[in-house]
């Protein structure tokens, strides 16, 4: 029998510090050291997308209303945000990482996992690779990247949080338990607020206490999920990079208008821009989507969601936009009132494997066009390219201004 060797993995989790704010500070040095909030006008209706570390000292955090943020930190600089620029920088960031290993998984605009096991000959030790990544990111974007190094994804993710701001945290083989034991439960990725509450009510507040809890008790409380929780708390996570569970469920983008908008033409232009944005993220991950969704919120906060399942999984800008436009037309026929919030979502992903079919010619054309579109946008920025549908007079500019004006700017991955 062959001896069984267990390969110790070297996983890096790289996450940019205060991403949206850092992009703003990098191009406006006068903001260095100031409390800065990206999200919109302090008097406006939106929420904080991100706050600089200086603003966080005043208790300002993501998802807080801008009004509250202003109350806590009245002297902060409030910026509307420039989503197109954040996407451009995100692509530069991902291109840097792609040179280190083919085993790369994006966790969103500003974070990614890298499995560099076996790449040591090319990239050096994990800490050397981390230093090189941080230097390249700093050089090419002006941003600080924090890096966590561990023997699995979860440890690397928790370590990158610990490394912030602007640092590296390495947890070596065999050090996992000691690293996790004193951590509060909320440092564990994917542990939801309700699970945390239930565990708190049992007197469990740290990862170490959770690790020591019996499997049987956790199983009877949480079902099969209980066993996973216990394993994670003990530092065990066999999930390969590229097959993580976060980011797998949906990709969406939504924005709130400063004033409700009734013009279908304007709404369609925003839908086009959002369709391109989510489809581009989908292609970056190498996926296709089966389901396309539209979200509309009216002035009185009533919200409707409509979804359609595509005949064939798709990843082109046009396929996404056509599906969402169809949903939009039907929804407008039923209720044509002015819109406060609009969003496009994708879900039910499949890996992007080319399908053999005689009918793919139209899809293929659209897909090639979309790939060319991604390249142009990466190289020259989002403004370099407007498609026919967003470029009609006034709308392209209006659309860009809207993207900047909108609050809750994130393409959040749910
Ligand atoms: P995060 O990586 O969670 O936060 P961050 O980069 O601002 O700060 P840090 O990593 O140093 O703690 O999110 C990345 C970007 O995503 C963030 O800059 C803005 C956006 N975002 C939102 O728009 N809404 C949100 O609720 C969150 C959490 C992030
Ligand atoms: Mg970040």
Write the layout of secondary structure elements.
Blueprint: E1 11-16, H1 19-27, E2 36-38, E3 50-51, H2 53-56, H3 66-72, E4 77-79, H4 83-98, E5 104-108, E6 111-115, H5 120-123, H6 126-141, E7 145-150, H7 153-163, E8 168-170, H8 176-180, H9 193-201, H10 207-212, H11 215-222, H12 224-233, E9 250-261, H13 264-285, E10 287-298, E11 303-314, H14 317-334, E12 339-351, H15 361-380, H16 395-405
Parallel strand pairs: 2-4, 7-8
Antiparallel strand pairs: 1-6, 1-7, 2-3, 5-6, 9-12, 10-11, 10-12
The structure holds thymidine-5'-triphosphate and magnesium ion.
Describe the structure concisely for a colleague.
The protein is α+β, with helices and mostly antiparallel strands and 414 residues long. It is 43% helix and 20% strand.
Describe the structure.
Strands 5-6-1-7-8 form a 5-stranded mixed beta sheet. A 4-stranded antiparallel beta sheet has the order 9-12-10-11. A 3-stranded mixed beta sheet has the order 3-2-4. The chain has helices at 19-27, 53-56, 66-72, 83-98, 120-123, 126-141, 153-163, 176-180, 193-201, 207-212, 215-222, 224-233, 264-285, 317-334, 361-380, 395-405; strands at residues 11-16, 36-38, 50-51, 77-79, 104-108, 111-115, 145-150, 168-170, 250-261, 287-298, 303-314, 339-351. Mean pLDDT is 84; it is low at 354-361, 382-402 and 404-414. It is an alpha+beta fold and 414 residues long. Helix 11 (215-222) packs across helix 12. It binds thymidine-5'-triphosphate (TTP) and magnesium ion. The site of magnesium ion has 5 residues, from strand 1.
């Amino acid at each position: 029998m062959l001896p069984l060797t267990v390969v110790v993995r070297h996983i890096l989790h790289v996450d940019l510090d205060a991403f949206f704010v850092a992009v703003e500070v990098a191009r406006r040095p006068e903001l260095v050291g100031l409390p800065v909030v990206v999200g919109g006008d302090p008097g406006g209706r939106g929420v904080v997308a991100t706050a600089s570390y200086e603003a966080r000292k005043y208790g300002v955090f993501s998802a807080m209303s801008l009004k509250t943020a202003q109350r806590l930190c009245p002297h902060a600089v409030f910026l509307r945000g420039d989503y197109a620029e954040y996407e451009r920088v995100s692509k530069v960031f991902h291109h840097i990482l792609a040179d280190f290993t083919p085993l790369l998984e994006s966790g969103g605009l500003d974070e990614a996992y890298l499995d560099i096991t076996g790449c040591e000959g090319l990239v050096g030790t994990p800490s050397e690779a981390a230093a090189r990544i941080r230097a390249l990111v700093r050089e090419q974007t002006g941003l600080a990247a924090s890096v966590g190094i561990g023997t699995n994804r979860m440890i690397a993710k928790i370590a990158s949080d610990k490394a912030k701001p602007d640092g590296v945290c390495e947890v070596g083989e065999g050090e996992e338990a000691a690293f996790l034991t004193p951590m509060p439960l909320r440092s564990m990725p994917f542990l939801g607020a309700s699970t945390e509450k239930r565990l708190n009510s049992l007197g469990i507040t740290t990862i170490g206490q959770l690790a020591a809890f019996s499997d049987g008790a956790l199983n009877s409380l949480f079902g099969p999920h209980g066993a996973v929780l216990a394993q994670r708390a003990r530092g065990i996570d066999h999930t390969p990079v590229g097959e993580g569970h976060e980011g797998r469920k949906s990709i969406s983008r939504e924005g709130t208008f400063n004033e409700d908008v009734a013009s279908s033409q304007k709404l369609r232009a925003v839908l086009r821009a959002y369709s391109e944005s989510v489809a581009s993220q989908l292609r970056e991950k190498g996926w296709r989507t089966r389901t396309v969704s539209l979200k509309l919120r009216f002035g009185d906060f009533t919200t409707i969601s409509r979804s359609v399942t595509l005949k064939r999984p798709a990843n082109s800008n046009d396929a996404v936009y056509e599906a969402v436009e169809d949903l939009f037309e039907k929804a407008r026929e039923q209720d044509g009132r002015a819109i406060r919030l609009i969003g496009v979502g994708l879900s039910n992903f499949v890996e992007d494997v080319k399908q053999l079919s005689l009918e793919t010619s139209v899809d293929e054309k659209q897909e090639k066009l979309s790939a060319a579109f991604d390249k142009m946008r990466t190289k020259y920025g989002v403004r370099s390219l407007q498609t026919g549908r967003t470029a009609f007079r006034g709308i392209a500019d209006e659309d860009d201004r809207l993207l900047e004006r909108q609050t809750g700017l994130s393409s959040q991955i749910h």
